Amino acid sequence: MTRLRAATYNQPAFTPFLPESAITQEVAARAAELQSRALKELSTVSDAEGLEAWRVAYLGRKSEVTLLKRSITDVPPGDRREFGQAANAVGEALASAFEQRRADIERPGTKDSDALDVTLPGRPSRIGSIHPITSTVREICAAFGEMGFGVVEGPEVELDHYNFEKLNIPRHHPARDSFNTLWIDKTGDDGERPLLLRTHTSPMQIRTMERQEPPVRVIVPGKVYRYEATDATHEWHFQQIEGLAVDEGVTFADLKGTLYEFARRMFGAERKVRFRCDFFPFVEPGVDMSIDCFKCGGEGCRICGDTGWIEILGAGMVHPNVLEGVGYDPQRYTGFAFGVGIERICMIKHGIDDIRLFYANDLRFLRQF
Ligand code: PHE
Question: Is the pLDDT of residue 3 over 60?
Fold first, then answer.
């Protein structure tokens, strides 16, 4: 591609002269016409070849300018001096216009060899990839989505009221300690209730139930925060997915069946699961669920810490106090809830041994996904 600006030179006007005879007048008209035609044509020339063709046609030995000069023999002797000057002026005007045009065409960047070749393949711009945590969230949401769970999200800056109080963790309950809460140095809208960075996604259980009547079937992905020293398995901010199902006649068998199916979808159809008692104030009974180690098949290895089992989530039947607190009748409705740590699931799936890698912005790590 050749980039060419419009010709920049000023087109010199043909210098008229006062002819003595009709024949001189005619030759003079020819000269004027020749000059304007040649300059017009020159302005459309855009490459070296066209320029050379133009030079041969207008300035060469057999060119129109040469013919014009020769026609001096047709001009009466008295007019010849003036005619000769005029014809020379045409030649000079065309020659200088030619030089300017050539300079324009040969200016660096406008020669064919310097030109941008649009047919060359472009430099690919680097597009990023999906962060492993994001794709894990999507995978988990898809697994529960197919089982009929809708997705909701909630605030990361939360009220004590939702993060603890309504989850059956009153002010001086010892369970509060285990959450290592990051408090916010301000009070809530009512001037009293303190704000915090949510320590889990469970407050969305309450917010969801307050908003609607049963049946409830939701999952809640989102960030949570804890005042904790970081190491290979702890971050002060990480992500969870909460799950909640409440309806008439929901039993512990529904909890087991749903979470078993989830484990198989995430970690393979041949997975086994194990439930053990655990304590969370907002469920009763509470459990933690493990899957058999898909790496060693239960023999014991680095991934499962030589136990053959990998703990992947906490769960339980929604505590009657919690149902009552949101105005649900615990005699009529029952439900189960669970909380999954996303980083943990992702680390297990991909064999990642340090949680801090997810947030270190090291492209050598991130590009692998
Ligand atoms: N919120 C709990 C935690 O962060 C996990 C959990 C959720 C346990 C729901 C039971 C039911 O540790």
Answer: no
